[in-house]
Structures are given as structure tokens and as C-alpha cells.
TrEMBL record:
It holds the Pfam family DAO_C. PROSITE patterns: FAD_G3PDH_2 (PS00978). PANTHER family: ANAEROBIC GLYCEROL-3-PHOSPHATE DEHYDROGENASE SUBUNIT A, GLYCEROL-3-PHOSPHATE DEHYDROGENASE. The lineage of its organism: Bacteria, Pseudomonadati, Spirochaetota, Spirochaetia, Leptospirales. The keyword Flavoprotein applies. This is Alpha-glycerophosphate oxidase C-terminal domain-containing protein. Gene3D superfamilies: Alpha-glycerophosphate oxidase, cap domain, D-Amino Acid Oxidase, subunit A, domain 2, FAD/NAD(P)-binding domain. GO terms for biological process: glycerol metabolic process; glycerol-3-phosphate catabolic process. InterPro entries: DAO_C (IPR031656), DAO_C_sf (IPR038299), FAD/NAD-bd_sf (IPR036188), G3P_DH_FAD-dep (IPR000447). GO terms for molecular function: glycerol-3-phosphate dehydrogenase (quinone) activity. Keywords: FAD, Flavoprotein, Glycerol metabolism, Oxidoreductase. Residues 113-230 form the Alpha-glycerophosphate oxidase C-terminal domain.
Length: 249
């Protein structure tokens, strides 16, 4: 179960923002008004904090009333800047921005933007029942198979191969997933994998902590890390996990 969200202004978010004030207690209290089985801090597996890229409003406007739409600005020098927006509309944002660049730069084009006609990676050949084939092929449970389906779509078999290796006992992730993230998704560190590729760090801190060693070992070999870099990456991941844990424990 996920409880959220809040909408709190923040002055200095830092590289890895943490919950502030009484946000967590507010979510627990509010959630318990609707839950049959009340939850408490001891039930929390992890927390996630994101910073919305809101455009500064005119006047003293509350953040929840500020538009989430993107804004394109053109300076006197011709510099084109985009601000705001959200992940769910990123392709439309890209189209709008490129269209504006073409207009401002008076550029010639052969055809209109075609991003809306392109399939996402893994979409070709995808079906809602794909997880059943994944489950059978790799002899894994349904939850594991559905995660792989959601992550990789129809590309899952190409990414994992015929006999993928688990990261470790009780860890529902394959070594091949780490390699794919490093080779094809430009992941450069342990935290990069756990937080921004697998997202497990924001879902289950204990599992994320178990994954640090195996992930670090694979990345060290793939990225040719020296031992000093490997230890620094592991320490950074542990530090972030403990910071998130302390924010509610």
C-alpha cells in the first residue's frame, strides 16, 4: 500500500530530499481515517520524496493551486527555455519544445513531429498475459513475473536471456537487469540502480540494503571501478537508506 501525497513548499531540497515537518504523521493520520487496519510508523517500508518543477507564480499563491503545465519562454536573444511540466506528458512537452525551436530558429523541416506514433520500448508484441510466459520460462512466482513484464515488456526475454542469475537468495532481481541498466540505461552507480532504475530503494529499504553488495560487485566489474570507488558507492547507498529510515523511525 502507498500513502500520499503531500504538497509542501521547500526551500533547499538537496540532492536527495527527505520528508519534512509532520508530513509522515499527516499521511498516517489521514490514511487511517479510511483504512480498516490502522498503520503506524513501524509498518513503513520506505518513503519517497519528489520535488515538483513548478513555475514560480505571480503573487503569494499556494503550491497546490499552481499549474502543472509546462511553460516555454523565449528570451530577447532567442534562447528557448522550457519549465514546469510532468512525467506523464513528457513526449508532448518534447514535441512542443522542438516545434517552438523550429519556429524561433526559422528552420526547415521535412515532416511534422512523429513522436506520438512511436511505440515505447517493449511495447511491440506486448500483451497483458505476458507475465504467464515469463513465469513459466524462468520458474519464478507471479509477482516477480509481473514486475518483469511491467519493467521490460516484450523485450524481457532479450534482456534476461535463457538462464538469468538471481542477485542473491530472497532477492527478486536478476544480475542481467543490473547489466542492462548499466549498458543500455546509462546507470553509473549503486544508488542510481536502486533508486532511479529499480526504484526498490523507495519501496523497501531492507531489500534495497541486501542488494547493495551484489549490485556493487556487478557494476565494479562492468564499469571497471577501483576498490575505492566501489566502497564509496556502497557507502553512499547505505547513507541514503539510513537517512530515509531516520526520517520516519
Amino acid at each position: 500500500m502507498i500513502l500520499g501525497t503531500t504538497d509542501t513548499p521547500i526551500e533547499n531540497p538537496g540532492d536527495e530530499p527527505l520528508p519534512i515537518g509532520n508530513e509522515i504523521q499527516f499521511l498516517l493520520d489521514t490514511g487511517n481515517e479510511y483504512l480498516e487496519n490502522p498503520v503506524a510508523e513501524k509498518d513503513i517500508l520506505s518513503v519517497f520524496v519528489g520535488i515538483r518543477p513548478l513555475i514560480s507564480p505571480e503573487g503569494n499563491q499556494d503550491t497546490k493551486n499552481i499549474s502543472r503545465e509546462e511553460v516555454i519562454l523565449v528570451s530577447n536573444s532567442g534562447l528557448v527555455t522550457m519549465g514546469g511540466g510532468k512525467w506523464s506528458t513528457y513526449r508532448k512537452m518534447a514535441e512542443d519544445l522542438v516545434d517552438k525551436l523550429i519556429q524561433v530558429g526559422n528552420l526547415e523541416t521535412r515532416k511534422e513531429c512523429s513522436t506520438k506514433s512511436y511505440l515505447y520500448p517493449g511495447a511491440e508484441g506486448y500483451s497483458e498475459s505476458l507475465y504467464q510466459e515469463i513465469e513459466k520460462s524462468y520458474q519464478i512466482d507471479t509477482q516477480f513475473a509481473k514486475r518483469l513484464q511491467n519493467y521490460y515488456g516484450a523485450e524481457v526475454f532479450e534482456i534476461l536471456g535463457k538462464k538469468p542469475k538471481l542477485l542473491g537468495k530472497g532477492i527478486p532481481y536478476f544480475e542481467e537487469e543490473v547489466l542492462f541498466a548499466a549498458k543500455e540505461e546509462f546507470a553509473l552507480g549503486v544508488t542510481d540502480i536502486l533508486a532511479r532504475r529499480f526504484r526498490i530503494l523507495f519501496v523497501d529499504l531492507e531489500l534495497a540494503k541486501k542488494m547493495i553488495g551484489p549490485v556493487s560487485a556487478i557494476l565494479a566489474k562492468q564499469l571497471k571501478w577501483k576498490d575505492k570507488t566501489k566502497k564509496a558507492e556502497e557507502s553512499a547507498a547505505i547513507e541514503l537508506i539510513e537517512s530515509l529510515r531516520k526520517s520516519y523511525a
